[in-house]
Write a structure and sequence with these properties.
Elements: H1 2-8, H2 10-18, H3 23-60, H4 69-95, H5 99-104
Helix pairs in contact: 3-4
């Protein structure tokens, strides 16, 4: 998803670099969209996973280990961090490229 978005916004990144934007500001600008999407997905997936696992385990087994809220928060935060790091690496490599190549496309 991030690669497709960056291919679409390559010329915008080139123009921003030519006009003097730093790589950190470009990284922050583009990462903000993905952070919002990942946060919503982590919250919705965490809640649905917690509810589904609790329902499934209580339906199948009379005695089971309950799913802990800490486990759900920890797994959601790990997914969020991995998603942001992979997106940041893609944005970093695009933003450090030559802006002339981006503008010639």
């Amino acid at each position: 998803m991030s690669t497709l978005n960056l291919q679409r916004r390559t010329q915008e990144i080139g123009v921003r670099k030519v006009l003097g934007a730093s790589v950190a500001s470009i990284l922050h600008l583009i990462n903000r969209e993905f952070a919002i999407i990942l946060a919503i997905a982590a919250l919705a997936g965490g809640y649905a996973g917690y509810a589904f696992t609790d329902f499934l385990l209580s339906d199948l087994y009379a005695q089971h280990v309950r799913v802990n809220l800490v486990t759900v928060i920890l797994s959601g935060s790990v997914i969020f961090v991995v998603g942001i790091l992979s997106t940041s690496a893609t944005i970093w490599s695009t933003a450090n490229g030559n802006p002339v190549k981006a503008l010639r496309m």
